[in-house]
Amino acid sequence: MKRFLYENGGPVIMVQLENEYGSYSTCDETYLKELYNLARSHLGENIIIFTSDGPSNSLLKCGSSDKRYLATVNFGPTTAPVLEVFKVLEDFRQNQPWVNSEYYVGWLDVWGGDHHITNPEWAVDGLNHLISYSMRVNVNMYMFHGGTNFGFWNGGARPESSITSYDYDAPISEAGDITRKYMIIRDLLFRRKGTEPPELPRNTTKISYGRVNMKFVSQCFRFINVSSTQN
């Protein structure tokens, strides 16, 4: 990763360690210190290292106990009032940038659940309110580009498991397509900047492969038992 850091001509300006560690209530200060030291040994002294936790004092205290980290919070348009969220962050660690490291413009899907779709106007209105609130505010949209959890990398939060697709109803879809949500977010940002947006590439042509009929072969657990015995 080091060759992709900003100081080396790359695009990476910040590196997050752990993810919402404060939510797991382990609160291992030694672990967070050693993790920070390890990252610095590999990445050097010029990159910003930060944590990302929910907007409450208890979560921040547990997830970002080492003051060498830039503490950030994550929240969506309806999580809590912006004033309330950044007051929590300011009370926890004063005089640092206010960063929403996960501004939720969509949501993930789980096995057996419905596909989540968020209103584009809802997402862009919240974004506009957020970036208009203060010059100290910095925003990272999550997710800006949908992706795929290949193989068994989907993970989850008990008792639910995420599906393979991580499209997230993001502004740029899992297939790399521009969506209406992308267009109105782009219009907002370029309007605030006072410049005209560049021309966009066309979305890729899609093909319908028709109906695929599946034939039952066996149960997954039966296969696991057989393969485990053979190995």
* Rg measurement, Å: 21 Å
Overall residue-averaged pLDDT value = 94
SSE order: EHEHEHEHEEEEEHH
Strand content: 15-25%
Family: Belongs to the glycosyl hydrolase 35 family.
Keywords: Glycosidase, Hydrolase
GO molecular function, one term: hydrolase activity, hydrolyzing O-glycosyl compounds
Organism: Schistosoma curassoni
In words, what does this structure look like?
Belongs to the glycosyl hydrolase 35 family. Residues 1-189 form the Glycoside hydrolase 35 catalytic domain. GO terms for molecular function: hydrolase activity, hydrolyzing O-glycosyl compounds. InterPro entries: GH, Gly_Hdrlase_35_cat, Glyco_hydro_35_CS, Glycoside_Hdrlase_35. It comes from Schistosoma curassoni. With 231 residues, the protein is α/β, with parallel strands linked by helices. It folds into 2 domains: 1-101, no CATH class; 105-231, no CATH class. 31% of the residues lie in helices and 15% in strands. The protein is built from 6 helices and 9 strands. The protein has helices spanning 29-43, 57-63, 82-92, 120-133, 180-193, 220-230; strands at residues 14-16, 48-53, 70-74, 98-104, 137-142, 147-148, 156-157, 160-161, 165-166. The strands form 3 sheets. The chain has a 5-stranded parallel β-sheet, with helices on one face. It has a two-stranded antiparallel sheet with strand order 6-9. It has a two-stranded antiparallel ribbon with strand order 7-8. Helix 2 links the parallel strand 2 and strand 3. Helix 4 packs parallel to helix 5. It is globular.
